[in-house]
Predict the 3D structure of the following.
Amino acid sequence: MNNSAKNDYPPGLIRADDLEHLLKALGAGGFRIQAPVIRDQSIVIDEIKSAGELPAGWTDEQNRGHYRIKRRSDNAYFGYVVGPYSWKKFLFPPSTAILEAKRTGNGFQVSAAAETVSPTAFFGIRPCDLRALQILDRVLIGSEYRDPIYQKRREQILIVAVNCTEPGGNCFCTSMESGPGAAEGYDIVLTEMIDAGQHNFLAQAGTERGNLILQQVPSEKATSDALKSAAEAVQMAARKISKKIDTADIKEMLYANAEHPRWEDVAKQCLSCANCTLVCPTCFCANIDDYTDLTGETATRVRRWDSCFTLDHSYIHGGSIRSSVRARYRQWLTHKLAAWHDQFGSSGCVGCGRCITWCPSGIDITEEVAAIRSGTVKAKAI
Ligand code: SF4
Ligand code: SF4
């Protein structure tokens, strides 16, 4: 991995019409390009070959339990925020074969499942999702216990980040210090600017390989006015964000409120459907399934996403230790915002707002935290 960013590369200005050259340079560098695209009335992430496949001229409308895409009045390439997919699906796929077993005479031969990975550019990743990748790096490959599947894939990733200049209705990255501007972890970062008939990208390399890619793209030196406009656009986005979580002493506050009546209130609305964990860019719980074919000659061990909202997830010798929805919602929120600090040294939330948008009951993590904080009661620890 070589994603540590240095900001000593000179920023350049790329005309929107020349964005295609950036994609071509990535393709010529041997990268498959995963980027935002429109599928089934949502902006998701899929492989593209040209800039024409990006959702130019589209935006998204997000609220509690609400998502719509609609036309913009301009032709912005990145005039929307994050959709239901996060980038973790490429690095920690929903379902992955990890072992294969073949019958050999009286026994079995067991081997790691074969997997081919290829260099991939994450094109258009937003600052909150970039922070989520850093969190997953810490969790999955940041200690002596490493996930080899994640690591093999992660080593092949080049990051082209895009700063946010228009927040979505459920964004609260400013509370989690993960946006709307990307601080580090990218090879290239773009800021889209549309003003007075001009449509440009401020492009900044963060690594030498990003710099080499940008050198292949027609650009001009960024003027101080262009730098100022780009910075102002990101600052403006930060000012437009209305959702927030007060993170002061949040770990202690949540630990002290394990018996707060709000957990029971939210449990009455929560369907325990697990949508929030599936869309979350940092949730990494998984389960293991073994399958045999009908002949009994081969077996495959598969890792698949699981969720702390399922009853089975906490099944230990004869029963689930979190049998109520109240206990499962409390586990999710308290792990994400409190216990994560103890385990991994940071919050597990980046403020992307996906869990709010895609919750069929419209449950809003920011409101739940505020409600618990406002009626803080002293309670026994979890
Ligand atoms: S909080 Fe919402 S998305 Fe999450 S499990 Fe409950 S109903 Fe589903
Ligand atoms: S908990 Fe919700 S807002 Fe936080 S990172 Fe996960 S999906 Fe995004």
Notes: The longest helix spans residues 325-344. Residues 250-287+304-374 form one domain. Residues 279-282, 336, 349-355, 365 surround iron/sulfur cluster (ligand 2) (CB under 6 Å).
